[in-house]
Each structure stands twice: as C-alpha cells, then as structure tokens.
Amino acid sequence: MLDDYDFSQGVRGKYVQPFVPDSTMAMSTSRPYSGPADLHSMLDLLVAVRPAERRGNSPSKVDLRELLALTAVQSTTLWFSRPVSLCDRADS
C-alpha cells in the first residue's frame, strides 16, 4: 500500500508500507491425484469458474477425462487453498 511520506527536508514522496498479512490469508496444501473422485472435483471446479461460453476451451471436460486416463498424467499434484487465521499458521 502506498502512503504519503513527509521527508525530513519537506519533500513529499511515496513509500511502500511493509506487508502485514491479514487474518484471513489463504494457505495452500497439496497432495497427489488419487483417482475418479478427484476427477469429479476438478470437473465441478471447471464448470463453476469457467463462463458458459468458454466451457469448450482447453482443457475441456473431455480433455481432462482423457488426460487423467493416462498413467503419466495421474502422477500430477493437486493444490488446494483455504482461508486460515494467523493462529492456524502459527501452529503449522
């Protein structure tokens, strides 16, 4: 965040305040892909966040089904985020 800063010689400028995390920052966790239940979650997410007019864009639902049928692609990592409080972060 930028704020006005009054330098000692009367010159006005800008400075950047130090970053202070808020109490609802998102933490990320990850784990390996574990099968059909994950595929269904990924498809649900795709439908939820992609506008209807872009649902056919790559990767489409069909693309994800075909790709995740390949053993090499099944070794992918899934990332999840959830809001946590700073006291949760201190415990980890």
Explain this structure:
It is a single chain. With 92 residues, the protein is of the alpha+beta class. It has a domain at 35-73. 29% of the residues lie in helices and 26% in strands. The protein contains three helices and four strands. Strand 1 and strand 2 (12-16) form a beta hairpin. The chain is flat and about 30 Å long. The model has no long low-confidence stretch (mean pLDDT 74).
Distance between the termini: 28 Å
Give the overall pLDDT as a whole number: 74
Largest sheet: number of strands, sense, barrel closure: 2 strands, antiparallel
Low-confidence stretches: none
Q: In percent, how helical is the residue content?
A: 25-40%
What would you call the structural class? alpha+beta
Helix and strand element order: EEEHHEH
What is the strand arrangement across the widest sheet? 1-2
Structure summary, number of beta strands: 4
Quaternary organization: single chain
Radius of gyration: 22 Å
Residue fraction in strands:
25-35%
